[in-house]
Amino acid sequence: MKWLAGAVLFLTACAAAEAPAQPETITPVLETPATQPSGVQASGLSCAGALTQGGIALCRATPGAEILIAGEAAGRADEQGWAVIGFNREAPESIRVEARAGDQIAHADLTIAPRQFDVQRVDGLPQQTVTPSDPAVRARIRSEAALKAQGFASMAPMTGFLDGFILPVEGGRVSGAWGNQRILNGTPSTPHFGYDIAVPTGTPIRAPAAGVVTLANPDMHYEGGLVFIDHGQGLITMYLHMSRLDVRVGDVVRQGQTIGAVGASGRATGPHLCWRMRWRERQLDPSIAVAGLATARAELVDRQIN
Ligand SMILES: [Zn+2]
Predict the structure, then answer these.
(1) Could you give the C-alpha distances from 206 to 153, 202, 223, in angstroms and in order?
(2) Signed CA dihedral, 197, 259, 263, 15: sign only
(3) How far is the CA of 224 from the centre of ligand 1 (A)?
(4) At what angle do helices 135-152 and 2-17 cross, to 10 degrees?
(5) What is the pLDDT of residues 6-46, one digit of tens each?
(6) Ligand 1 centre from 144 Cα, in Å?
(7) Do residues 119 and 192 make contact, with C-beta atoms less than 8 angstroms apart?
(8) Predicted TM-score of the model (pTM)
(9) Structural domain count, the chain
(10) Same domain, 128 and 220
(11) Alpha-carbon distance 74 to 279, whole Å?
């Protein structure tokens, strides 16, 4: 259950970093980090997408093939042979993806582009928000961690990721980059695994891809109003600090459907959407997914035809 503790820590860091002491970078939200779709083709396995740290890719394999990433089981390709894979912040330069179907094993060695992450110091935070010691608060954090673990454990048979992702809010500016190393009150903390978009309270949040809601809670200690959507194959997106929730656990949402509204609930000092993405315990950069999945499917279909 090591990752569970990690989840609590990163959420602490995210919330704390939204204090006024944080320097804000101003970037138009549509200028997502540039990622060139590229890929590697091997007999029985072909992958394309954002091959970079925090990135995401689509693979085409034999339908039902068992997928392994760096030797680790990572589910199965669906009935059409599609499989989604992701790369965490510390992903090495080369990652081997395997597809096993019967006694056939195909593999592709993907080259993962490294990224530079800034170090951000945030000082003057109430110490209780960095290292909570109040027993009641700690008990609440524990029970909410269990709730989140439940939401993450979902493996819905959805294929929402195949249609690519749209941005969940229109306009705004990036108020917190993904992956930055955080030093809170002088203590090195876990990196920021959110992509923060500053928009006014009440701005509708749209499902960026079809999926099923696996967590919908209006009042979490760190996150405030919080929603998780499972898009299939363990790819889950998260929406923090919401002012209104329009969905409940078990709801199936379509791409573009309003799931609630932006707010500043939980530990946030101003209205913004903290958007997060996770695939099988790896934290991914959602802005990279928007860029990376847009062309990956078409590229793989193209390769198959030619
Ligand atoms: Zn955030």
Answers:
(1) 23, 12, 18
(2) negative
(3) 12
(4) 110
(5) 233 333 334 433 433 333 333 333 333 444 444 444 458 99
(6) 18
(7) no
(8) 0.83
(9) 2
(10) yes
(11) 10
